Amino acid sequence: MKLPHMKALVENTRLPDRTLYPGAGIEFGIKLDFLRDLQAKWLNDYNWTKQEATLNELPQFTAKIEGLTVHFLHAKSKEPDRIPLLMMHGWPGSFQEFQPVIKPLTQLWKSPSGKRISFDVVAPSLPGFLFSSPPPQNWTTNDTARIFDTLMVDVLGYSTYALHGTDRGAIIGYTLYNSFNTSARAANVKSIPFVAPTPDEIVTNNITLSDIAKVTEQRTVDFRATGMGYSTEQTFKPNSIGLALYDNPIGQLAWIGGNIQLWSDPRAGTSPSVLTDDTLLTMVSLYYLTQTFQSSVWMYAQNPNTFSPVYVKPATDAPMVFSLFEFDIMLWPKEYVERASNLVLYKGM
Predict the structure, then answer these.
(1) Confidence (pLDDT) at 264
(2) Is the model's pLDDT at 1 over the cut of 70?
(3) Distances (CA, A) of 136 to 90, 144, 203, 231
(4) SS3 call for 25
(5) Which CATH architecture fits 51-195+306-348?
(6) What are the backbone dihedrals phi and psi of residue 62, each rounded to the nearest 5 degrees, phi first?
(7) Is the pLDDT of residue 261 over 90?
(8) What is the Cα–Cα distance from 209 to 222, expressed in whole angstroms?
(9) Is the dihedral of CA 292, 194, 121, 55 positive or negative?
(10) Average pLDDT over every residue of 195-209
């Protein structure tokens, strides 16, 4: 009955007739007109059955690890020398965000030197997200890294693997890179667990930023000034926001959608972006239908000190690639990433 119940709640949720403060930008949260349009699309144009069928085309499994049910996608290449690749999402994401790249990664690609490359892709749901069971209250990023290494090595039989992480998934990836250095043998991340420098620190260190990095730097300044409210709430009051929105799909859409709108490429919704209204509605539908919004936000409370002010070299000789996306909301310049990794490539997207 979850789907009919969700549709009834979406239909019967009342929104204000007019915007309270028309001049307020998205830094104050989701705009009423945007939310109202999404509500109408959710009711009239969105097809959950179609989205569900597309997601079910991906090979998915569960495994019991340390008493937890761990859900994961496992898409295999047909190539004999394929590379195991662990892909980790963050909040408010899921394995869904990797959907556009799964098939291409499993297909053969030849490098300029003629090397044949393809991947076995493993994309787990973080503990407490979607089909992975909620962890104990004292669960940390280190614990998630440990069970993901167990998944790759002991459950799936990969003695070594590469990894990719976004958002909090990148922090888990860095922990694997640093602490599980015999099995995690290459990393591609877009975040590291160290406090990003301020513009003044970047100037003091005589760092010259690319045009892409300058955009990211300004977005970092803006995010630190007005964008941290969700994180503070989820870190210190996860039950308040979690219970308030637990059975409220429009509320979850407002909370998640407002952040996605603020963090995204401003061109989202137009080609070549794959972030569409349907993508966002599926993201929220997955949280609501699995009843895991509350347990997902607890990840912040369980890891309140994620970012260290002191940069240290990792205990590994494995290479790292760092991907800087222009419209990210946190900037780590190349010189800072080098302090905390064996950086072989720093690429602006």
Answers:
(1) 85
(2) no
(3) 18, 11, 43, 20
(4) coil
(5) 3-Layer(aba) Sandwich (3.40)
(6) -135, 155
(7) no
(8) 17
(9) positive
(10) 97
